[in-house]
Amino acid sequence: MATQLRRGVELDIVPLSDAIGVEVRGLDLSKPIDDATGQALRTAWAENSILLVRGQELDYDAQFEYARVYGEVAARVKPPVEKRAYRPDAENPMQLVTNEKDTEGRPVGSLGDGEMWFHTDKCYVEKPHRASFLYAEQLPSEGGHTKYASLYNTYDRLPADLKDKLEGSKVLQMYDYTKTERGSLDQRLDDLLHYWQPAFVTNPDTGRKAVYMSRLMSVRVEGYSDEESRELIDAVADITEAPDNVYEHVWTPGDIMIWDNLSCLHARTDWPHEQTRRLRRVTIKGEALIG
């Protein structure tokens, strides 16, 4: 354990890995956070991309209060009208990320089960979510981990020729909610959420440059053919997903994690589908990206 000074406040901070992330110890997030501690937490998060606090007992209100330390909570997209009658989270700004089903076999939450490739949240809209939170409630006996990869490190590790090809370019970000693997440009763009974003972004809190691409949601690089784009995206993704650039978080109940969608990607591992995995998700509003 290391006591570090952040904006005049001492925090007990422990690195999660050499690549990315810290754990902050000694906090009770069910109680109000004073302004100085809030500033210190925001600084630690901005510097390290992901920030974990363990052993918390949080109701919905306490989770929202903690999220507001980092910015304005984003409104969530409500389930389709036909699903709202049986979805317990349908009218709640808190999203349930779970594979649970009701007595008739209908999903009661979102993003059910299975592996999910590396991605960043809402990259396919003009103003992506700046931060995302997950709070763990119920977990399977194995699997269901979340992996985090540093996009700062990716930018720093890009070979010069690859960086030159992407400098000043835009990338088409696209997502099909029915899939957990990469979409195809054979699909009609008008039927899917999509947006052209900078290949490289500047983080407004740190001033650092990061790559803004993922294997799951990046489908085309401006000025290149489909095949060339796929090669460029895969070359970047190979650097991002290198084992020494990834932290894999094994959840325990009471963990709450915040991550910066401008400086890291996250992915999900599979787990036995007969076992329940339930987490609560909140996001923070973002702004248009700075290249």
What does this structure look like?
39% of the residues are buried. This protein has helices spanning 35-48, 60-68, 81-84, 151-157, 160-166, 226-240, and strands spanning 2-6, 9-15, 22-25, 50-53, 95-98, 116-119, 131-138, 146-150, 170-175, 193-198, 200-202, 209-211, 218-221, 246-249, 256-260, 264-268, 278-284. The chain is built from 6 helices and 17 strands. 19% of the residues lie in helices and 29% in strands. The protein has a single domain (13-284), classed as Clavaminate synthase-like (Double-stranded beta-helix). The two termini are 36 Å apart. With 291 residues, it is an alpha+beta fold. An 8-stranded mixed β-sheet has the order 1-2-3-4-15-7-17-5. It has a 4-stranded antiparallel β-sheet with strand order 6-16-8-14. Strands 10-9-13 form a 3-stranded antiparallel β-sheet.
Write the element-wise H/E pattern from the N-terminal end onward: EEEHEHHEEEEHHEEEEEHEEEE
- The total count of helices amounts to 6
Oligomer: single chain
Major sheet: order of its strands? 1-2-3-4-15-7-17-5
Kindly summarize this structure in a few lines.
This protein is α+β, with helices and mostly antiparallel strands. The chain has helices spanning 35-48, 60-68, 81-84, 151-157, 160-166, 226-240, and strands at residues 2-6, 9-15, 22-25, 50-53, 95-98, 116-119, 131-138, 146-150, 170-175, 193-198, 200-202, 209-211, 218-221, 246-249, 256-260, 264-268, 278-284.
Write the layout of secondary structure elements.
Layout: E1 2-6, E2 9-15, E3 22-25, H1 35-48, E4 50-53, H2 60-68, H3 81-84, E5 95-98, E6 116-119, E7 131-138, E8 146-150, H4 151-157, H5 160-166, E9 170-175, E10 193-198, E11 200-202, E12 209-211, E13 218-221, H6 226-240, E14 246-249, E15 256-260, E16 264-268, E17 278-284
